[in-house]
Amino acid sequence: MNDHVPLKKLHIKTYGCQMNVYDSERMVDILRPLGYEVSDKAEGADLVLLNTCHIREKAAEKVYSEIGRLREMREEKEARGEGRMTIAVAGCVAQAEGKEIMHRAPAVDLVVGPQAYHQLPELIARTHRSKGERLSADFAPEAKFDALTVDREVSGPAAFLTVQEGCDKFCTFCVVPYTRGAEWSRPVASILDEARGLAAKGVRELTLLGQNVNAYNGLDADGQESTLAKLMYALADIEGIDRLRYTTSHPNDMGQDLIDAHRDLPAMMPYLHLPVQSGSDKILRAMNRKHGRQAYFDLIDRIKAARPDLALSGDFIVGFPGETDKDFEDTLDLIRRVGYASAFSFKYSPRPGTPAAGMPGQVPDDVADARLQTLQALIIEQQQAFKEKLIGQTLDILFDKPGRLAGQAIGRSPYLQSVFVEDAAHLIGQIHKVKIIANSNNSLKGELA
Length: 449
Ligand code: SAH
Ligand code: SF4
Ligand code: F3S
What we know:
CATH class of the largest domain: Alpha Beta
Strand content: 15-25%
Distance between the termini: 42 Å
Shape: globular
Strand order of the largest sheet: 2-1-3-4-5
CATH topology of the largest domain: Rossmann fold
CATH architecture of the largest domain: 3-Layer(aba) Sandwich
Low-confidence stretches: none
Bound molecules: S-adenosyl-L-homocysteine, iron/sulfur cluster, FE3-S4 cluster
Radius of gyration: 23 Å
Number of helices: 13
Number of strands: 18
Helix content: 25-40%
């Protein structure tokens, strides 16, 4: 750390998916050399960064109410003579509504999209010089990753690593193709470099991120297109990297070599997030998911044949335009047949500019609310059943962090549940065998085996 740089406080608030979590970490990494130190509260911060999500209406609206709160904090800070608070909006709302943010929220100094945040140091300096000049920048994933070679700070033995960005699928409900741009994969060498750096700092588990991570096709050292499976093998060879995960996958991009890797590569964790969104063929077609329910069942059979203990998670949308009681029943039936270890479910939110927003048959709110409740109750039931089944089993647990009580440590199971264990604090950062003894609400309880 350079002693001559006065410390400035940076508060960063992250909304949305894991990719935004990764981006926030990298924003901190590039601002650290400028003397920014992370503060867990916005109060008194010199720079507040909102890393936003545009996926559903509520997610986007939260940003505007947050900006209102920040504006008051800024005034108080200035009144105390503590200098200005710079307010920056990053992420997917910045990309989708940059101009509108500037118009609706004049308190914002700077707007920067998800492919341009490597320019933050320069953009902030320019904002300071011209007092309130507001700037925005556009897609350029290659330039971004080239500029992100700065050292990564790690916060524990598990880390996210973005390998692919963007989406060409254009599901009719989704903003991601518009906010993140076209599918683009990082070259293999750049990913391996970042992974080696993380391993050297004690990271044992990597979760590879991409909006369509299993469509990964980055170039290898010979200039040939790689696959996610090949990348997995290369990562597993790195000393210290013991566990690999990846998210989010599209069913149509589940290549045979990736399925085989679930059988052959011990580092691959037996857990897969494989969203299907709906169990109705009619709705799947209207969503432009490009596969039907039977194809999803067949795919799961093939994956389970390769790795019988693999646990599944998914995403579901209820109340998509045109969804009838029968369509919804098909979704419940799909969930019953597949059996999920966990799942996320959402009420359909019409997003401006997406084809579904203008479709006929928009489902009334109360109907969608009731369906969401029914679906969530079924998922909770399955989630609990899955956890109950683990009781009595001995699992490899990667200990992440201390628990609330002295000596306690919290770790994660191969199937991604958190497990807390007494007298295990000395094992943080390591993988150890744990016997699962109880299911307690959101986690499992275990004892060292
Ligand atoms: N690329 C991933 C998902 C990215 S968005 C995939 O294809 O599965 C994460 C989840 O948000 C989606 O899986 C979907 O369930 C949900 N989602 C996206 N747009 C939505 C909308 N307009 N309304 C409600 N949920 C939405
Ligand atoms: Fe959105 Fe569909 Fe792309 Fe997933 S695959 S990011 S849901 S458009
Ligand atoms: Fe949200 Fe953007 Fe992720 S819209 S879900 S933060 S890709």
